């Protein structure tokens, strides 16, 4: 009798604990939902708490339970849901959780020092690619079961807490792409350099020793062949040579003089975002470009670089960059972390004296402008042009609607749409407006939205206008700056010419002669009408880029081989926000 009574009491106690645990899980998830901005409605439409059956929260998107028959949250995986806000204190009611993944959202504020008290059993913590700021709390060391900790791609500052060395089970660790400084704790030094990349103030461990001569000073010493020379003397020599170079020719640098000044710094290492098999130095880039010879220019200030192993890169010089080196490194690293199938990847950068170089993957197909305007431009049939339009729209839409902080291009044109080996479109030179004024502004005639003349304030709708001009180029085969038609006596921009034809009900006359009457006229007219909506005089009347992309995609054939790229999510309510 006594034994049965004890068993009954234990059973009642277990049931009470289960009910309490279930109530905590509901309180946790409801608090998370209520405290966050959810522009895509991912939580609003699916996290419904009217159901009171046991285990109902286990079927919420992003939620996994230890047992489907009870409300005990094991994993909270909310990656890429466009959620915004601060890390919710309501997480403390999900204390059984062993995985928290909030990556690729728009979380801001600091990392709560109480996080490991709220979730003491965490094995995986992924807060990467958000907008978190402040210092890394040393209390994260209290998550003693952590196997994986990823804080990369945020805006964290300060040093890496030495307490994190005590995480003995840690197998994966990254703080890349932040603004951290100081030494790498000894207990974390076994992780690769890529775990700490993009933090110009970090040193030690895989990044090299702290203190003593800097790598730049060492490069000067090696190149000058003066062992044991005082770094300050060498710096004075460099300044003197710079002064002489600036005075030559009446105080203005002659063409090529900027490259000549770099010869004394050939040993400076190029910062790469992915750890290379061998280190690449400035001297390698100079040899690969013939000391930045004019005959190696691809366009503007971008050079073709052929390395000794035969690989080809594109190196862009930013002559107008006025950012301090530390800020430049942070901005360049942020751009280097952006990866999308329709963007040209930024591979690395190099800062020497007052020169700033960006290293990109080379696109063998060259710019769309050259493909359309060269004698061989007619080889671009309609299917190729539509494919290019869809790819370019996808890349630009992702910059506007797919990253935590919307990124304006500000210099979109057919010259920055590059073609890869397969003829796929990749948008290049994104984010250069944050690095250097006018860095990608050459050849802008006909691309800028009319409101820029008055406000000088860039916007997403300004990018949409520029994209509309590129659509017109694809459909008409004409240059944007001037569309002169002698037989009609018209002289004006491409937008003006297409507008005149559209107003007169003669839009079909704008179709490129190489495409006309080949079975695609109706589709081309649809694209031209989409282009006209993009270049509407009033910004509010222009569609958002995600709308342009989906409209173009609907025009493409069902066999579009790039459909699988739609795994990169877009946020659809950002057209009225003020992006960076």
Key traits:
580 residues, alpha/beta, Leucine-rich repeat, LRR (right-handed beta-alpha superhelix), Transferase(Phosphotransferase), domain 1, 3 domains, six-stranded mixed sheet, six-stranded parallel sheet, 14 helices, 21 strands, globular, disordered C terminus
Topology diagram in text:
Layout: H1 2-35, E1 63-65, E2 73-77, E3 84-85, E4 99-101, E5 106-109, H2 115-118, E6 124-126, E7 131-135, E8 148-150, E9 155-158, E10 172-174, E11 179-183, E12 201-203, H3 215-224, H4 231-247, H5 257-262, E13 271-272, H6 282-288, E14 297-299, E15 302-306, E16 312-317, H7 325-336, E17 346-352, E18 355-361, E19 366-367, H8 368-373, H9 382-401, E20 417-419, E21 425-427, H10 452-455, H11 460-476, H12 494-503, H13 521-534, H14 545-555
Parallel strand pairs: 2-4, 3-5, 4-6, 5-7, 6-8, 7-9, 8-10, 9-11, 11-12
Antiparallel strand pairs: 1-2, 13-17, 14-15, 15-16, 16-18, 17-18, 19-20, 20-21
Describe the protein's architecture and organization.
The structure is a single chain. With 580 residues, this protein is of the alpha/beta class. It folds into 3 domains: 2-207, Alpha-Beta Horseshoe (Leucine-rich repeat, LRR (right-handed beta-alpha superhelix)), CATH 3.80.10; 215-361, Phosphorylase Kinase, domain 1; 366-567, Orthogonal Bundle (Transferase(Phosphotransferase), domain 1), CATH 1.10.510. The protein has helices at residues 2-35, 115-118, 215-224, 231-247, 257-262, 282-288, 325-336, 368-373, 382-401, 452-455, 460-476, 494-503, 521-534, 545-555, and strands at residues 63-65, 73-77, 84-85, 99-101, 106-109, 124-126, 131-135, 148-150, 155-158, 172-174, 179-183, 201-203, 271-272, 297-299, 302-306, 312-317, 346-352, 355-361, 366-367, 417-419, 425-427. It is globular, with a radius of gyration of 28 Å.
């Amino acid at each position: 009798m006594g034994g049965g009574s004890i068993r009954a009491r234990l059973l009642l106690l277990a049931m009470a604990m289960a009910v309490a645990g279930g109530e905590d899980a509901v309180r946790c998830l409801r608090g998370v939902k209520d405290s966050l901005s959810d522009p895509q409605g991912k939580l609003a439409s699916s996290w419904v708490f009217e159901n009171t059956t046991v285990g109902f929260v286990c079927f919420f998107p992003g939620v996994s339970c230890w047992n489907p028959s009870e409300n005990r949250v094991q994993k909270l995986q909310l990656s890429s849901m466009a959620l915004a806000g601060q890390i919710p204190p309501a997480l403390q009611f999900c204390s059984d959780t062993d995985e928290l993944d909030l990556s690729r959202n728009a979380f801001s504020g600091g990392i709560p020092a109480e996080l490991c008290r709220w979730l003491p059993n965490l094995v995986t913590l992924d807060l990467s690619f958000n907008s978190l700021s402040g210092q890394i709390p040393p209390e994260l060391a209290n998550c003693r079961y952590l196997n994986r900790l990823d804080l990369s791609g945020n805006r964290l500052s300060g040093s890496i807490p030495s307490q994190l060395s005590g995480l003995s089970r840690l197998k994966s660790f990254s703080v890349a792409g932040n603004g951290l400084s100081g030494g790498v704790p000894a207990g974390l030094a076994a992780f690769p350099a890529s775990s700490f990349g993009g933090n110009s103030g970090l040193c030690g461990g895989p990044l090299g020793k702290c203190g003593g001569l800097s790598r730049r000073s060492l490069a000067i010493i090696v190149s000058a062949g003066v062992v044991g020379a005082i770094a300050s003397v060498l710096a004075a020599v460099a300044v003197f040579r710079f002064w002489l170079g600036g005075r030559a020719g009446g105080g203005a640098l002659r063409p090529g003089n900027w490259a000549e000044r770099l010869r004394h710094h050939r040993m400076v290492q190029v910062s790469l975002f992915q750890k290379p098999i061998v280190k690449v130095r400035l001297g390698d880039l100079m040899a690969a470009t013939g000391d930045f010879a004019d005959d190696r220019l691809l366009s503007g200030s971008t050079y073709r670089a052929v390395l000794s192993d035969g690989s080809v890169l594109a190196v862009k010089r930013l002559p107008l960059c006025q950012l301090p080196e530390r800020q430049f490194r942070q901005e360049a690293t942020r751009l280097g972390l952006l990866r999308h199938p329709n963007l040209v990847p930024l591979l690395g950068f190099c800062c020497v004296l007052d020169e700033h170089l960006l290293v990109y993957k080379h696109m063998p197909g060259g710019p769309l402008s050259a493909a359309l305007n060269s004698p061989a431009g007619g080889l671009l049939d309609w299917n190729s042009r539509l494919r290019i339009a869809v790819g370019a729209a996808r890349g630009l839409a992702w910059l506007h609607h797919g990253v935590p902080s919307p990124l304006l291009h500000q210099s979109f044109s057919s010259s920055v749409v590059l073609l890869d080996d397969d003829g796929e479109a990749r948008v290049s030179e994104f984010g250069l407006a944050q690095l250097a004024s006018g860095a990608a502004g050459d050849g802008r005639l006909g691309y800028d939205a009319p409101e820029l003349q008055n406000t000088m304030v860039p916007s997403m709708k300004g990018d949409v206008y520029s994209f509309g001009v590129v659509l017109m180029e694809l459909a008409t085969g004409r240059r944007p700056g001037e569309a002169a038609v002698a037989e009609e006596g018209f002289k004006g921009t491409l937008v003006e010419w297409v507008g005149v034809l559209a107003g007169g009900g003669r839009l079909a006359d704008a179709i490129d002669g190489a495409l006309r009457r080949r079975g695609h006229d109706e589709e081309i007219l649809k694209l031209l009408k989409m282009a006209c909506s993009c270049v509407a005089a009033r910004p509010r009347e222009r569609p958002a880029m995600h709308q342009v992309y989906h409209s173009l995609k609907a025009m493409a054939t069902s066999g579009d081989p790039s459909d699988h790229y739609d795994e990169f999510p877009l946020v659809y309510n950002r057209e009225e926000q003020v992006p960076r």
